[in-house]
Design a protein that fits this description.
The protein is α+β, with helices and mostly antiparallel strands. It is built from 8 helices and 14 strands. A 7-stranded mixed beta sheet has the order 3-4-5-9-8-7-6, with helices on both faces. β11 and β12 form a beta hairpin. α2 crosses α3. The longest helix is centred in the middle third of the chain and has 19 residues. The N and C termini lie far apart (54 Å). It binds biotin. Biotin binds next to α4, β5, β8 and β9.
Length: 307
């Protein structure tokens, strides 16, 4: 009911809708409508009541499931959690459907790549999507590349921000990190059980105090941008890309949005630090670096910094 109720109030912006009209529309007692209005007001919406009926004055920027009706049954919003990766893993293990989405207002122990933590203050967008694609486990990594190239388009559409992808899974704006992606995959007997893609976007949140290399959507757009709108648009575009972009073309498309190729880089792996020029990303998602002594190095896991 919440989704349709908000829809009606939004389309009649300004003019009141009576409780009687709504109870007829929903074929339910007026008390049930009043209850739903009170519930929404308790969640941060401002629905004024006067003799003419109800008027929606403001909505909080919280990605509640009913704000994205196509995902209402599969989107789970938590005001706070330890990490959406953990919740999503539990749900995936418990058999949740393909395209389940776990969103958190804040995370107590948000995780990044290479065992780093992910600063998850109020105002950012933190979510993990559970995917159960019918593809080879060896192609699973391409979904994260597909998600990051989708995000580049979404940030342009919703906030007018130009971003680039940086190997393997960062999104940068003007050289500063605005978004990071983290993937976890579970495969058994040659088939994918699930690929969970965690996405953290600095939207309207404060940035980590010690990080001058980070930026937020708000900083770059010069205004607050709706997290709900970013998430809604991402889910819509990602679903279309999953359907329309052949997996064999993901890396080529990703490279078109990459800012880190043909640049001087330092790549930190678990064992060493490699310096040279980032020449390419191959069909398996590995970074190809030409070192200063002319050697070609293929890096599967690491972190890349421009020099
Ligand atoms: C990185 O750049 O190192 C990846 C950061 C990924 C952060 C997101 S926020 C939502 C999801 N939950 C987590 O604990 N991490 C990912």
């Amino acid at each position: 009911m919440k989704s349709r109720l908000l829809d009606i109030l939004r389309t009649r912006a300004g003019s009141a809708v009576s409780c009687r009209q709504l109870s007829e529309e929903f074929v339910c007692p007026a008390a049930r409508v009043e209850e739903a209005v009170q519930e929404l007001n308790g969640l941060g919406y401002i629905i004024a009541t006067d003799e003419g009926g109800y008027r929606l004055l403001a909505s909080p920027d919280i990605p509640f499931p009913w704000e994205i009706p196509e995902y209402e049954e599969r989107l789970h919003y938590f005001p706070q959690t330890d990490s959406t990766m953990d919740v999503a893993r539990q749900m995936a293990k418990g058999g949740c459907p393909h395209k389940t989405v776990v969103v958190a207002g804040t995370q107590r122990s948000g995780r990044g790549r290479l065992n780093r933590s992910w600063y998850s203050e109020e105002g950012g967008l933190y979510f993990t999507m559970v995917l159960r694609p019918d593809i080879r486990p060896a192609d699973g990594f391409k979904l994260t590349f597909l998600a990051s190239l989708t995000l580049v388009g979404v940030l342009q559409e919703t906030a007018g921000i130009e971003t680039t992808v940086k190997w393997p899974n960062d999104i940068l704006a003007g050289g500063r990190k605005i978004c990071g992606l983290l993937a976890e995959m579970d495969a058994a007997s040659g088939a994918i059980e699930f690929v969970n893609i965690g996405i953290g976007i600095n939207v309207n949140n404060r940035l980590p105090p010690d990080q001058t290399a980070a930026a937020s959507v708000e900083m770059l757009a010069g205004r607050r941008v709706s997290r709900t709108m970013i998430l809604r648009r991402f889910l819509e575009r990602f679903e279309a890309n999953l359907r329309d972009v052949p997996l064999s073309d993901v890396i080529r498309r990703w490279k078109k949005t990459a800012g880190s190729l043909q640049k001087r880089v330092t790549v930190e792996t678990c064992e060493e630090s490699i310096q040279g020029t980032a020449e390419d990303v191959d069909s398996e998602g590995a970074l190809i670096v030409r070192t200063d002594n002319g050697r070609r190095r293929r890096i599967v896991y690491g972190d890349c910094f421009y020099r």
